[in-house]
């Protein structure tokens, strides 16, 4: 059941996002917000990041050029501010991905789907991270434990599966909104629905914020139909 | 474990929310001549004295700080509009008035950096504070409607800062409700947050509630 925090009859009409035509900043901001809000790592925005990096490079060059050619320092400082803002976004985006990798690297390495979402640099990072962590655990703790308890992935050799791998909490709740009206969102898991009450399918109005469990809307976030914030 | 703070819950800092708000557009009236700026975030200008033009808030504030422009306070920030909104906000119990998504941050930034451009600044500021208080009280009241059958919360017309403030509480409450409704998740969660817990006992653990 969706509880309603104020069901105004008028829908929110004002521009939720600033309207910026054809720049890459808005998509980057979206990617940043989604990445920060999603419990698991999302597909790497390779081409977007590539374009942004080029623009940053070009802007750095022209700022250097401007300051040499004696253009009004005010203008130079405005360009610099713009550059700083984009760089902040990009760094924060990449950093939040790295944090997830550090936290869930063992899980990511086990899952083809998640592993494919990493960039080349992130793959190198993951490998090195795993290597360093294993080395550290081995040297500091695991080598001093009885033989049966020396695995990084398992609690003991009697564990049937890898039960020491932290998984991203997909059942966490996130704040999100949809760009368009969506219906038939299945809030319950398959087996749950079979065993329990029949839940009416959930619907989402455009541009209305919802706080909802991540797992049922996971695919809609991945396909870009729902944004997190 | 439930009840423990989770860094995942405090996703966006107040500064980050403010950062996003700084991209909102607003009108300035420059007092100097300046060519167009071709920024990564878009093209703005050209700027002519006394001719109003639209720029993002951060740019407006940067120019304002250097005394290069006056900022036109957005329409909703007038005493008249805000008085109306405050009254309507008080009258409507179940719903929120429509305000810009970033009204808290925009007004704060303008009070901090462009006080001489905000007509009746003290009155406007106290109106906005009152509106915030009334809205927050309503948020708190409507949160009481969350119960064990709540699986999603719809938040219509709440602003960015308000969402950010209620997020940790609501998310944690819903998480706890969900978890207790699905007993099989409890040991799982233990395993994630507390790696020392023995994971072998799940089988024996009796579900708390059968449905």
Overview of this protein structure:
The complex is a heterodimer of chains A (229) and B (211). Chain A has helices at residues 25-37, 46-68, 73-110, 112-115, 120-140, 190-195, 214-222; strands spanning 2-5, 173-178, 182-185, 202-204, 209-213, 226-228. The radius of gyration of chain A is 23 Å and the shape is flat. Residues 1-20 and 194-198 of chain A have low confidence and may be disordered. With 229 residues, chain A is mainly alpha-helical. A three-stranded antiparallel beta sheet of chain A has the order 5-2-6. Chain B has helices at 14-21, 57-65, 79-91, 103-113, 121-143, 160-181, 185-193; strands at 25-30, 37-39, 42-44, 53-56, 69-71, 152-155. In chain B, strand 2 (37-39) and strand 3 form a beta hairpin. Chain B starts with 13 loop residues before the first helix and ends in an 18-residue tail after the last helix. Mean pLDDT of chain B is 84; it is low at 1-5 and 187-211. Chains A and B meet through strand 1, helix 1, helix 2, helix 3 and strand 2 of A and helix 1, helix 2, helix 5, strand 6 and helix 6 of B.
List descriptors.
heterodimer; A: 229 residues; mainly alpha; Methane Monooxygenase Hydroxylase, Chain G, domain 1; Ribosomal Protein L9, domain 1; 2 domains; 3-stranded antiparallel beta sheet; two-stranded antiparallel ribbon; 7 helices; 6 strands; disordered N terminus; B: 211 residues; two-stranded antiparallel sheet
Spell out the blueprint of helices and strands.
The complex is a heterodimer of chains A (229) and B (211).
Chain A lengths: L1 E4 L19 H13 L8 H23 L4 H38 L1 H4 L4 H21 L32 E6 L3 E4 L4 H6 L6 E3 L4 E5 H9 L3 E3 L1
Antiparallel strand pairs in A: 2-5, 2-6, 3-4
Chain B lengths: L13 H8 L3 E6 L6 E3 L2 E3 L8 E4 H9 L3 E3 L7 H13 L11 H11 L7 H23 L8 E4 L4 H22 L3 H9 L18
Antiparallel strand pairs in B: 1-4, 1-5, 2-3
GO biological process, one term (chain B): DNA replication
Keywords (chain B): DNA replication, Nucleus
Subcellular location (chain B): Nucleus
């Amino acid at each position: 059941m969706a509880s309603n925090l104020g069901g105004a009859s008028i829908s929110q009409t004002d521009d939720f996002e600033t309207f910026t035509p054809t720049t890459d900043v808005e998509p980057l901001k979206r990617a940043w917000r989604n990445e920060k809000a999603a419990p698991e790592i999302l597909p790497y925005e390779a081409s977007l990041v590539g374009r942004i990096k080029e623009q940053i490079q070009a802007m750095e060059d022209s700022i250097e050029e401007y300051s040499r050619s004696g253009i009004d320092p005010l203008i130079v400082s405005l360009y610099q501010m713009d550059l700083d803002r984009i760089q902040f976004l990009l760094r924060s985006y990449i950093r939040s991905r790295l944090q997830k990798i550090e936290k869930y690297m063992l899980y990511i390495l086990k899952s083809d789907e998640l592993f494919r979402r990493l960039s080349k640099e992130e793959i190198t990072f993951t490998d090195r991270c795993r290597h360093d962590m294993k080395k550290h655990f081995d040297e500091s703790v695991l080598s001093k434990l009885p033989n049966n308890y020396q695995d990084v992935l398992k609690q003991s050799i009697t564990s049937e599966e890898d039960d020491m791998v932290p998984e991203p909490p997909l059942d966490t709740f996130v704040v999100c909104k949809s760009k368009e009206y969506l219906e038939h969102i299945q809030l319950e898991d398959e087996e749950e629905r079979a065993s329990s009450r029949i839940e009416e399918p959930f619907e989402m109005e455009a541009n209305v914020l919802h706080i909802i469990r991540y797992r049922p809307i996971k695919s809609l976030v991945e396909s870009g139909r729902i944004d997190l914030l | 474990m439930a009840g423990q703070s989770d860094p995942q819950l405090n996703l966006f800092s107040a500064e980050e929310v403010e950062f996003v708000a700084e991209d909102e557009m607003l009108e300035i009236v420059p007092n100097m001549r300046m060519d167009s700026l071709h920024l990564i975030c878009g093209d703005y200008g050209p700027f002519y004295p006394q001719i109003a033009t639209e720029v993002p808030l951060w740019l407006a504030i940067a120019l304002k700080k250097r005394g290069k422009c006056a900022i036109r306070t957005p329409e909703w920030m007038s005493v008249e509009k805000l008085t109306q909104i405050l009254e309507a906000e008080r009258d409507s119990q179940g719903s929120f008035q429509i305000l810009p998504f970033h009204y808290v941050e925009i007004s704060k930034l303008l009070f901090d950096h462009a006080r001489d451009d905000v007509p009746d600044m003290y009155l406007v500021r106290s109106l906005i504070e009152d509106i915030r208080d009334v809205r927050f009280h309503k948020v708190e009241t409507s949160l009481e409607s969350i119960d064990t059958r709540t699986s999603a919360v719809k938040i219509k017309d709440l602003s960015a800062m308000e969402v950010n403030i209620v997020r940790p509480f609501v998310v944690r409450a819903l998480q706890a409700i969900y978890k207790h409704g699905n007993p099989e998740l409890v040991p799982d969660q233990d395993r994630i947050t507390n790696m020392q817990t023995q994971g072998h006992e799940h089988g024996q653990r009796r579900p708390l509630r059968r449905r």
